[in-house]
Amino acid sequence: MTPSTTSRRPSRRAYLLITGFALLLVLFPFLFWYQTWFGRKLTDTEITDYLANAAAKPRKAQHALVQIGERLSRGDSRARQWYPKVVDLSASGNIELRQTAAWIMGQDHTYELFHDALRKLLTDSSPMVRRNAALSLTNFGDAASRSELLAMLRPYSIPSPLPGAVKYRLKLGEYVNPGTLVGRVGTAEIRSPLPGEVLALNERDGATVRAGETLVELSPDKEHAWEALRGLLRVGQKADLEDVQRYARGVAGMPDRVRQQASLTLQEIESRGQ
User: Fold this and answer.
1) Is 4 a residue whose pLDDT tops 60?
2) pTM for the full model?
């Protein structure tokens, strides 16, 4: 007689371990996303702590800045307690913190220290920081923002930061976002600081370029153009009409709402008689 064989099933403990492992596979990504998602509501204490530790944890400080901006948009006057820290972070070595601070400071045009900090950011090394600062300054009615607003309506040139042989990673007509790899000069990576469509590759692939030579021409981004035209509605002058008129006639690749905004801006500037 052949002895019957009994099939062995996993023990209860094994089931629990397998279940626990499966939960962790789901839970860890969720916790990471939850901790880095800027929409997560922060308490006053968390905002204060995140801002205080900006140097060590800039991502959390940026989260706190975004939350302050949301509170300002709701008219929450308690956000004023963090105004001095927002001004401090506008001078941070971290581009994302300066960029976010520039956006926030435009939401309260009654605070003069915001005004002063924004004017300094008009000369920032980052074009995204300069553009946020310029848009925010229009809420103060400050025409110092005009030159940057006009730059947002024009193509942007990406220069080579050093001499060497260029190797492109882009093609004509491709759309790039901030941080997209444009190519390399030697072993150095060149990344786009702005969004836009590739209008021109100014050098032959593999050619030797000098520092400062233009590598790529980018088109104005439709959202940036729209925001710039809204800003010029407030602070634009007669000298700005040529750029505005071009958009009012219609620019290839731009949606109709950009043309409509240009028409409104054109009418407003002309009515001021400046």
Assistant:
1) no
2) 0.84
